[in-house]
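Supplementary Note 3. Input sequence used for the single-chain structure prediction.
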Amino acid sequence: MLRCLGCASCKLSPRNGNGSHGFTYDAEYFESWNLAPGTPAWKLREATAAMRLETLERLGVCGGALLDVGAAGGYLVERANRAGFDARGVEVSEHAVQIASRVVPGRVHQGTLETLELEPGSLDVVTLFDVLEHVPTPLDSLSRLARWLKPGGWLAVTTPDVDSLSARWMAGAWPHYKEEHLFYPSRGGLRRLFASAGFEVALEERAMKYLSVAFTAPLFKRYPVALITPAMDLLHRLLPAPLREASFKISIGERLLVGRKR
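The predicted structure, written as discrete structure tokens, is reproduced below.
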């Protein structure tokens, strides 16, 4: 990892020229996430998506054309359409797009921001949840999104927070340090990115998610952390099913920023 001496953001180095250092988001990648409609894990994703949309609603964002970047199985697109948005998504994984086609037929397309073509000023809202850390050139990506947004349009981002207590406490064992993550903005670095891309920050806070022991334990097996992985495995084996599946809202060292295009 390289850390910027100016803004304290970090990036993975070295990486190859394609921006993803050969990492593929195939079916195997999504196995740990149990990305299947109707499962307890899916319901957790739906609950988190609903919470994020409620955050936008508190800011007065209640409708319009919405693009969900990194749409995965389409759970946020589906919830946004139910909430009154004209929502669509773009997702790099063919496997995830196939799942989304069953949930929101025709509304999640395979591709990246570089392959997507939209008219300038055609969007009211862009959501970029758990995506920016996968992007090799974050300022280019946010600037592209800014061109697609109308003046006064909204951008909502969540990403790992290298300034969080969990990042400082766990150091190199922090679970967000993964081979597929290329970029880790500091809080100041993320605000600079927003400003450089033409956004004024309207909201900044810890990002919350709905999780459960049943959902989290397999992830710690895929991304092992000393002490935490065996502890989660023990809980998963000892707790009765209702407690394993019970959801709880928690911050796992991520930041939420909502900005408005100038």
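The longest helix spans residues 40-58. Residues 17-21 have pLDDT under 50 and may be disordered.
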